[in-house]
């Protein structure tokens, strides 16, 4: 996958840097794996705005993704690599030998026509899903479960990956994308390889309108508000707003908000880098 720079025929195209979509092989999704998405506009069930700066955006349909990879031992063939408006990564449509179709997060290097499989006897190759107990040490992995059978919840965004560092008894030691090192049960599953669309973080939208298409409204800077609206608001002239903090007064930029007695602390070997 590569990025393409457009000729500056309009102001919005002058700095625009977008994916060339060379890795995408299909333009229409599989209808049986679509679900409706209703936009809330940041409103709750009474119509009151509870989340600001949300609204508008293009109509989307949700692609049902198989995060569990629980069809063990049944080989599947990659049919297409597709764009998903709900995530930064590409998705792959796979057809199993018994006729069932599913979407998975497409790893980097996955090709149409390639065979993938999940389960205990799978080889540690790109796209295959294995238990952490069966993956060789030092392997790059993504789509990691935190609890057995829960489904993948970690290392799922574009370009992200983790590394299996060691095994200690019933736990595997994982170096997470954030830099954190933590222990996870070896009975949890993970997929071999890194997530596709690694150049996503280099893209430049080019204009405010593309952000609106994604359902994000303009965000007001706290220092431009009044004191009644934000702790950093107010002041004469262009006086900046003092110590950085949230709208509710909680300090930001380095202030630790994690509960010191959280139960999962004992599984974290090294905290993430600042």
Layout of helices and strands, plus pairs?
Elements: E1 3-5, E2 17-19, E3 34-36, E4 61-63, E5 76-82, E6 91-96, E7 101-105, E8 115-116, E9 129-131, E10 140-142, E11 162-168, E12 171-175, E13 181-185, E14 189-192, H1 208-213, E15 268-270
Antiparallel strand pairs: 1-2, 3-4, 5-6, 5-8, 6-7, 9-14, 10-11, 10-14, 11-12, 12-13, 13-15
Structure description:
The chain is an all-beta fold. It has two domains: 3-200, OB fold (Dihydrolipoamide Acetyltransferase, E2P), CATH 2.40.50; 222-268, Ribosomal protein L2, domain 3, CATH 4.10.950.10. It has one helix and 15 strands; from the N terminus they run ββββββββββββββαβ. A seven-stranded antiparallel β-sheet has the order 9-14-10-11-12-13-15, with no helix packed on it. A four-stranded antiparallel β-sheet has the order 7-6-5-8, with no helix packed on it. The protein is globular. The two termini are 30 Å apart.
Mean pLDDT: 95
Report the radius of gyration as a whole number of Å.
22 Å
Tell me the number of helical segments per DSSP (H or I, 4 or more residues long). Answer: 1
Which CATH architecture of the largest domain? Beta Barrel
- Count of beta strands: 15
Distance between the termini: 30 Å
Largest sheet: 7 strands, antiparallel
Structural class: mainly beta
The arrangement of helices and strands along the chain is EEEEEEEEEEEEEEHE
**Overall 3D form:** globular
Instruction: State the CATH class of the largest domain.
Output: Mainly Beta
Strand content: 15-25%
Helix content: under 10%
CATH level 4 superfamily of the largest domain: Nucleic acid-binding proteins
Low-pLDDT windows of residues: none
CATH fold type of the largest domain = OB fold (Dihydrolipoamide Acetyltransferase, E2P)
Kindly report the spatial arrangement of strands forming the biggest sheet: 9-14-10-11-12-13-15
Domains, number: 2
């Amino acid at each position: 996958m590569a990025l393409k720079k457009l000729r500056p025929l309009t102001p919005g195209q002058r700095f625009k840097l977008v994916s060339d979509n060379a890795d995408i092989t299909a333009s229409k999704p599989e209808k049986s794996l679509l679900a409706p998405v209703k936009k809330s506009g940041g409103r709750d069930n009474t119509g009151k705005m509870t989340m600001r700066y949300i609204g508008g955006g293009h109509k989307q349909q949700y692609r049902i993704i198989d995060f569990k990879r629980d069809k063990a031992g049944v080989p599947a063939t990659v049919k297409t690599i597709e764009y998903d408006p709900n995530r930064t990564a590409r998705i792959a449509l796979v057809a199993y030998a018994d006729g069932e179709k599913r979407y998975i997060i497409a790893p980097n290097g996955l090709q149409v026509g390639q065979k993938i499989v999940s389960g205990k006897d799978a080889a540690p190759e790109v796209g295959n899903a294995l238990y952490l107990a069966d993956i060789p040490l030092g392997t790059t992995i993504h789509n990691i479960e935190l609890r057995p059978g829960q489904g993948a919840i970690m290392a799922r965004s574009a370009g992200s990956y983790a590394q299996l560092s060691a095994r200690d008894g019933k736990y595997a030691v994982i170096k997470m994308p954030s830099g954190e090192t933590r222990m996870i049960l070896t009975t949890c599953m993970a997929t071999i390889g890194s997530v596709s669309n690694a150049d996503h973080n280099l893209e430049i939208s080019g204009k405010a309108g593309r952000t609106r298409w994604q359902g994000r409204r303009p965000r007001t800077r706290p220092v431009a508000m009044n004191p009644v609206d934000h702790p950093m608001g107010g002041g004469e002239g262009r006086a900046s707003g003092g110590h950085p903090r949230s709208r509710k007064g909680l300090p930001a930029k380095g202030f630790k908000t994690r509960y010191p007695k959280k139960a999962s602390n004992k599984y974290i070997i090294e905290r993430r880098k600042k």
